[in-house]
Amino acid sequence: MKKNILYAIALAVSFVGCSRPQDKRTEIENKVETLLHKMTLEEKLGQMNQLSPWNFEELADRVRKGEVGSILNVVNSEEINKIQNIAVEESRLGIPILVSRDVIHGYKTIFPIPLGQAATFNPEVVEKGARVAAVEASADGIRWTFAPMIDVSRDPRWGRIAESCGEDPYLNAVMGTAMIKGFQGDSLNDPTAIAACAKHFVAYGASEGGKDYNSTFIPERVLRNVYLPPFKAAVDAGCATFMTSFNDNDGIPGTANKFVLKDILRDEWKFDGMVVTDWTSTAEMINHGFCTDGKDAAEKSVNAGVDMEMVSETFIKNLKQSVAEGKVSMETIDNAVRNILRLKFRLGLFENPYIVTPQSVKYAEEHLLAAKTAAEQSVILLKNDAQTLPLTDKVKTVAVVGPMADAPYEQMGTWVFDGEKEHTQTPLKAIREMYGDKVNVIFEQGLAYSRDKNTSGIAKAVNAARRADVVVCFVGEESILSGEAHSLANLDLQGAQSQLIKSLAATGKPVVTVVMAGRQLTISDEVEASDAVLYSFHPGTMGGPAIADILFGKVNPSGKTPVTFPRMTGQAPIYYAHNNTGRPANPTEMLIDEIPVEAGQTSVGCRSFYLDAGNSPLFPFGYGLSYTNFEYSDLKLASDKLTVDGEVNVSVNLKNAGKYDGTEVVQLYVQDKVGSVTRPVKELKAFQRVELKAGESKTVTFSLPVSDLAFWRYDMSYGVEAGDFKLWVGTNSAEGLSAEFSVMN
Ligand code: BGC
């Protein structure tokens, strides 16, 4: 009897649990339909129009007439409340405006750029960062951000690699999911939730030659195996919106790509959110040579599945006529408007159109702390000869040198519209304030900014180095050198920074180089010249204290690189998960300086490598050292014969064999040895951050569903293929203990 009652309660609870979201959905759908039926075609096209206004009065007038569905780039909270009041009280149907902004890695409190956040390999830290951004941005009335950017990015020449989570589809999926959860919170209608936007759909990261906006040529299989998985993960995480991409893929601009916008996003993935174009990308299809004029562009875009147009206004100007001519159906317009209204209802904008959150949340103590934790975990230790780091008590005088040591604006990185440099804590400030009572700090910048070619200050920096026990040299990139439209054809350190490092090294004093940049740079010589190297993708507001604590050993670095570091620019695009050629390189290849004069045509072998750069990267994906030393042993597979519905259960012993407590990112890679199509040499399938005290050991286990080994096969079906697999568990993509297993049908 008791059992029956319990069962009945469980059933009731589960029933209530399932039915409530469904009820809410139905309620919203009903409201959407009721409103839609009241709307004129003009009002519908108004909802599909997003503006970045320059003039408040003009905007107010257009909102009153129902010509605007959303605005971006208005951050004055008084103006936002006024506009909202006009929309709600003075427009015919009282539909609130959706206020948006690029809140990419923080609003006021700036977190590391997304590439740096990815280097934490810590989705919790990343989720927290997006939550903080949402709380601060929503306090100013922003309820929609254009993030996360989850374009798989394999070419450091492309400036937008800074905004991505790097080269790996799985890492982009995990981090993108974390950001979406953070932005959107538990429920979109919480006033601190901001709708996320998965962008740029799709393949934008593959821009030819790393040049921004350039064409891409990604065939469907690669699209599905590599570029789409982070976006599918975004849909699964409940991402509210998607943005089309600027690039044309195989001749079809992202803003008119029906195959991805309708067939995949809507029909296969059942996405019921909203799709916005990128900035003027509809009208830009005329430049692409894909559309004759604005009307043609609007029709192609809306018929492909776009709901809202950002800025170029071809929809509102042309689609009434297109509907009259039968070139665009009313059903298409209605579906777009449904997607827009649904989002506005989900955000609770009809009930709470105005800003309610107190302003005091900006730069709140806990936000700064979260930003510091993220910055700490994002820093990657690339080299540490003779345990140069952490700096010990023996160090009495530190020379702080370099153009990035005290560059509060630059260390925030790209896409910072709202963060203020007055709030940034630079390494120089932090070292002085936090460690100034322990060490004597001499500061000589050496170069005024990262591109500075004027070497007249280097002598003073060298002199400072001579007077110190150790030199910490901060180099890298100013913020403007990465991000949108900021591609580079040469990835060496800019200006005279390399000369600065080499001059400091020539003093014989230990040199610690700290690189703060928006992408991975070609720094072989500078790594060689330095005793220790820390790499910090622009670390944001709290970068200084984070780096100071790492330098002085209060924090042990744990970041791992989410991108492969090339030795030379010409190796780009570069990524670990490449397919094998029929002639893979030998590690012992003879390189350019070893080749004899008049060498015979085939004397260097016929393998896949560069005569000058070889075939290996400077640092592989997943690489990052610690002050302590982690030892892997005893890799065990529970079973090496599995079925497609089984699990790969693997364990490894991890020991902290060094003197410091530390955190290791344990990485699991798999290779499908033979496929119906060629398969990557390795793919990241899982990772765990494991904290160990000095001397402590732990058994780390992974349970990987065999279904995670599925891919798009020869016949374009999706699934796991029976056969032999190899796996590695280790500290980066190039090292690890390995085992083999097979999968049977
Ligand atoms: C960028 C987008 C961004 C949009 C709005 C475009 O130029 O490509 O990523 O969200 O501008 O600012």
Name the features.
five-stranded parallel β-sheet; Immunoglobulin-like; alpha/beta; six-stranded mixed β-sheet; binds beta-D-glucopyranose; 745 residues
CATH topology grouping of the domain at 630-744: Immunoglobulin-like
Q: Which cofactors or ions or other ligands sit in this model?
A: beta-D-glucopyranose
Relevant CATH superfamily of the domain at 630-744: Immunoglobulins
Radius of gyration: 27 Å
Q: What proportion strand?
A: 15-25%
Strand segment count:
26
Q: Level of helix content?
A: 25-40%
Strand order across the largest sheet: 11-16-15-14-12-13
Class by alpha and beta content: alpha/beta
CATH architecture descriptor of the domain at 630-744: Sandwich
The averaged pLDDT comes out at 96
Count the DSSP helices. 20
How would you describe the overall organization of this protein?
The protein starts with a helix and ends with a strand. The longest helix has 37 residues, at 2-38. Mean pLDDT is 96; it is low at 1-18. The strands form seven sheets. Strands 11-16-15-14-12-13 form a six-stranded mixed beta sheet, with helices on both faces. With 745 residues, the chain is of the alpha/beta class. β25 and β26 (735-744) form a beta hairpin. Among the domains are: 47-98, no CATH class; 630-744, Sandwich (Immunoglobulin-like), CATH 2.60.40.10. The structure holds beta-D-glucopyranose. Beta-D-glucopyranose (BGC) binds at residues 102, 146, 199, 278-279, 484.
